[in-house]
Amino acid sequence: MELNNKSLFKEKCFVNGQWEDGQNNNRIEVNNPATMEIIGKVPNFTADETKSVIEYADNAFQSWKNTTAKERSIILKKWSDLIVDNVDDLAKIMTVEQGKPLAEAKGEILMGASYIEFYAEEAKRVYGDIIPDPRPGKRIVIIKQPVGVVGAITPWNFPNSMITRKCAAALAVGCTTVVKPASQTPFSALAVAELAKLAGFPDGVFNIITGSAKEIGMELTKNPKIKKISFTGSTEVGKILMEQSASTVKKMSMELGGHAPFIVFEDADIDEAVEGALQSKFRNSGQTCICTNRLFVHENVYDVFLEKFTNGVKKIKVGNGLDEGIVSGPLIDKSSLEKVIDHVQDAVNIGAKIAVGGDVHPLGGNFYQPTVLSNVSTKAKITFEETFGPVAPVYKFSNDEEVIKMANDTPYGLASYFYSRDIGKIWRVAEALEYGIVSINNGLPTIPEVPFGGVKESGMGREGSRYGLDDYLIIKYISMGGI
Ligand code: NAP
Question: Is the CB of residue 386 below 6 angstroms from any atom belonging to ligand 1?
């Protein structure tokens, strides 16, 4: 990998301001999902080593919590600037370990930096409250304080921004963090740690460790010095972490799986809906938690939408994300590819028709063809399981009540999308959808200023916006008498 700043590629963990190899000789290999080449190895930290890192973070918390918001803001802003300055190298590292096209990787890095910039500013606005006491001679004041050491566990699909979105909010309010990134994409995380060091965070405030998810996860969830777990990943693992954290009653943020509906009403601008569906379905090869999973199209516009959408999908250029003009990279690994193959096969077996794609890509490896399925049965696996791949099943509906019922018929509740120009319908449908995010006439709803998060089995807590700070704060009321 040719980098301008070679110090960004680290094969060590970042602990208490130092780069550490760990005791375990059995290191974790990381491969490039486009070529299957091994690009490097990272340490395999044990539970005992994790415990030591938590001690460092707890020590650092004792002084970091007493810094002023302005002091923390200055370091955060510097960190954000350094990430922007190194965007080309960081994007290259991400494309090589994760597979997404270079332009998309750059977009994620800049988004990741903008979360830090946002919280550098917002840290100064953690206000308290005064409640008029109904009793004479008494006063009530509300203050907010950092919760303590945060254990953050992040996924491979957004190797940079899932870390910055959590840690920027946590660090901004005075918490310290121990981060475990996904084993498939640790290098993006470690590169960001190198820039955190340069930005000037005191030792122990921001730590990144790699290793067995189960072992590190167990220590993070059971250790009483960790006061908060912030997790982004599958609903299945989120539930395990919630159970494990119960014994120490930790504060929790869970950004889990999704199964987003995308509804095209009869009055929609069809060209805009096609554009939005292409963006929300095929970004990151369909591997985002807010990717469209089910497209519901009104029967009167079904044929025209299907034709235009299919034509758009045919133009998606698949290949190695480092190559010019590539829009869709490989899937992260073989088991992800197998899930996509299974979902398509299952849908076709019970009546779905392939409008385009429908098979592994001639490039081989982890590549799958961008696919559109029509006439999909609501009994198909793809109707109720997260596919996490470049497959768009299109269903037909005839009235609002029916489509709202179909859209809500899932245990997930992260993102939903719909296209309409009717103001009354827009309000009715937005209120009826059981989702944390409702995106109307817009295929790309995520920015730092919004409270991202789900309901139902898509999780709890919010990331981004001023609400994202609350997840790392405790509320204390101070009741004073004798006045
Ligand atoms: P995952 O398998 O749940 O893994 C996520 C993270 O959890 C990784 O760091 C993984 O480590 C770790 N992990 C796995 N098992 C663990 C355990 N027993 N204890 C502690 N940590 C454990 O999810 P994924 O496949 O990486 O990511 C895809 C999922 O994330 C999808 O469901 C997607 O919808 C969801 N997601 C949600 C959001 C959101 O904001 N709601 C955003 C992005 C993704 P290893 O890599 O070492 O196994």
Answer: yes
